[in-house]
Specification:
The protein has a 6-stranded antiparallel sheet with strand order 15-16-18-17-19-22, sandwiched between helices. Strands 5-6-7-8-9 form a 5-stranded antiparallel sheet, covered by helices on one side. The protein has helices spanning about 5-20, 75-85, 180-185, 190-200, 205-215, 225-230, 230-250, 290-310, 310-335, 340-355, 385-430, 435-445, 480-490, 520-530, and strands at about 25-30, 35-40, 45-50, 60-65, 90-95, 100-110, 115-120, 130-135, 140, 260, 265-270, 280-285, 365-370, 375-380, 465-470, 475, 495-500, 510, 540-550, 550-555, 565, 570-575. The protein is elongated. Helices cover about 40% and strands about 20% of the residues. α4 (about 190-200) crosses α5 (about 205-215), α9 (about 310-335) packs antiparallel against α11 (about 385-430) and α10 (about 340-355) packs antiparallel against α11. By secondary structure, the chain is an alpha+beta fold.
Length: about 575
């Protein structure tokens, strides 16, 4: 979700509650576009406020963490220390629902006179900035200097007058009424959700979709629907009621921060619960600052692993594409061998009935004694019937040899494709750098990566995923093929239960039965985990095979993670594991 005006409103409420009346004790600039303010609060405590104007991730929130600062403070940091050190925060405000926060600070100047200045934080994506202005709105300095060469809209330079850039004629959602809302919306010829966030300041696409969802309207349909619908008044009433109710929540500061998860991956955050997502997928967080810190830390961890696995993904993808092309070519060649038995029959029939063929004939009719039907056999008029028969037998022999060779080769290539797809799945579910070590080792052992020099095998500390079912049974999931083999053939006992998504790459899932019968709920929990940790996790329903571990065998010489089983049960189930908690061993 974008750091929109509604989220900013929630941050402002929290900062007002925590920081007003506090004194700025320390000012640091850990990064070129980042500030860390330490504030002594009125209750004698201490708070840290992190402000980032980074183009990729602008943020502002309270944090307990600290960051090392450069040995020599940058000029902007020194300027703030000169003016704001020991200054008192007297107010924190947000103009309308803009993505802007004003920190109003009162301090004594060199002459001992009381002065007021503002630190303005603009959270606007790549245009984010931290601007220091005086009482007359004159810019004293900013963390980023924006000249007229960079922006024709506004210069952000010392000595210039500060103003908020025009937001493309957007309206203030906190002051709109039904008439204005209706007229503006109908005039827009675009999807309803898009019209809402284009018309009003501070509303992100996610919040626009949420408004439509609360109104019971599909946000992707055109605004033309509102003017053409026979129930147009009711639709607009519902939409405006949902819109105004959300704005009332903002005005009252009625915020209940949540992070929305898909499985264990954070996908969205919001300053209050979203009806467009299941309650089971939403985790309540104590404060907006905690939400932002936790969400971006978890999101960053996922992104970091994705970045670190880029090389491995490229190697796997290249090998996979090469094998898929080879497999497709082999299947086409296999299709060409389908005529081999026909050629054999032609040869046999010519040996039996060839004497009936007229000299120089281009074909002959004969009874196929395999089907008891008459067939037409093409002939080379320059050859005798026996020579034609030999020609057909030669073709049959060649195609038969090709078929036998391709049968072995296609099986090998298909096994290679399945193996590479299982490695892709392992890369998709990897959460830690340690998880990548075992995957890389598997690629080395299979010849996809050459081991550098005399380097030895690296010992990995990666462990399987560990969950507990709602009935209290421990469930373990392999993160890669090595862990799958380890879980199934070394960790599990014969009476434990084994689960796997049918016909698709995925993790081995082991339920420790401890010698007792598993309740239905645990079977379903384990099946959902097998569905989620497979390539089919995006499907509405996934077929899962499950059996006792003693029925699972590993063929000699087979690839890591490959098993066979002939006695099993199956179930169709979804991949929703939001109700299950992962245990970090």
């Amino acid at each position: 979700m974008a750091f929109d005006g509604i989220t900013i409103a929630a941050v402002v409420k929290e900062l007002k509650h925590s920081l007003i009346g506090g004194r700025i004790y320390k000012i640091a600039q850990p990064e070129s576009d980042e500030l860390l303010l330490t504030i002594k609060t009125t209750d004698g405590g201490q708070k840290r406020l992190l402000i980032s104007a980074g183009a990729s991730l602008p943020l502002i929130y309270l944090t307990e963490g600290n960051k090392p600062s450069p040995m020599t403070a940058p000029g902007f940091c020194m300027l703030l220390r000169k003016h704001l050190q020991n200054g008192r925060i007297i107010d924190i405000s947000q103009p309308g629902l803009e993505r802007i926060i004003h920190l109003h600070v009162e301090h004594l100047n060199e002459m001992g006179d009381l002065c007021r200045k503002r630190l303005i934080v603009e959270i606007m994506g790549k245009h984010s900035n931290i601007i220091f202005v005086n009482e007359d709105d004159m810019i004293i300095d900013s963390i980023k200097h924006i000249s007229g060469l960079v922006s024709s809209v506004r210069e952000v330079l010392p000595g210039r007058t500060y103003f908020v850039p025009a937001t493309q004629d957007k309206r203030d959602p906190l002051t709109t009424d039904f008439s204005t809302f209706q007229t503006a919306l109908i005039e827009k010829n675009m999807p309803i959700y898009k019209a809402i966030y284009n018309l009003y300041t501070g509303i992100s696409p996610v919040m626009a979709h949420e408004i439509c969802c609360r109104a019971g309207i599909d946000g992707d349909i055109s605004t033309a629907f509102l003017s053409d619908s026979p129930d147009v008044k009711q639709s607009l009433d519902n939409l405006y009621q949902a819109f105004s109710h959300m704005m009332e929540q903002v005005k009252k500061g009625d915020f209940y921060p949540v992070i929305i998860y898909e499985g264990n991956t954070p996908v969205e955050f919001a300053p209050f619960s979203l009806v467009m997502y299941s309650e089971n997928n939403q985790k309540a967080i104590s404060s907006v600052s905690s939400l932002l810190e936790q969400y971006y830390a978890e999101k960053s961890a996922v992104t970091r692993i994705r970045q670190k696995s880029v090389d491995l993904r490229r190697i796997v993808q290249t090998a996979l594409e090469r094998n898929v092309k080879k497999y497709d070519l082999q299947l086409r060649q296999m299709k060409d061998t389908e005529k081999k038995d026909q050629y054999r029959i032609y040869g046999e029939l010519l040996n039996t009935y060839g004497y009936e063929a007229a000299p120089g004939a281009k074909s002959m009719e004969a009874l196929n004694y395999y089907t008891n039907e008459m067939i037409t056999i093409p002939l080379d008029p320059l050859l005798t019937p026996s020579e034609n028969a030999k020609k057909y037998f030669d073709k049959y022999g060649k195609l038969k040899r090709t078929f036998e060779a391709l049968s072995t080769l296609t099986a090998q290539v298909k096994e290679e494709i399945d193996h590479l797809e299982s490695i892709q799945n392992a890369l998709d579910i990897a959460l830690l750098e340690e998880d990548l070590v075992q995957i890389k080792e598997e690629l080395i052992s299979c010849g996809y990566i050459r081991r550098k020099g005399s380097s030895k095998k690296i010992k990995s500390t990666s462990k399987p995923f560990h969950y507990v079912s709602k009935d209290g049974f421990h469930i373990y999931i392999g993160k890669n093929n090595y862990q799958n083999d380890e879980l199934t053939f070394k960790f599990a006992n014969g009476g434990d239960w084994w689960f796997h998504a049918k016909g698709v790459p995925g993790s081995h899932v082991i339920v420790k039965s401890e010698g007792t019968a598993l309740p239905d709920g645990t079977f379903e929990d384990a099946a959902r985990l097998a569905a989620y940790y497979s390539k089919a996790r995006e499907q509405e329903k996934v077929e899962i095979d499950y059996t006792e571990k003693k029925n699972v065998k590993k063929p000699n010489g087979s690839k890591p993670g490959f098993v066979v089983y002939y006695t099993n049960y199956s179930m169709m189930i979804d991949s929703d594991i939001s109700h299950l908690k992962r245990i970090d061993d």
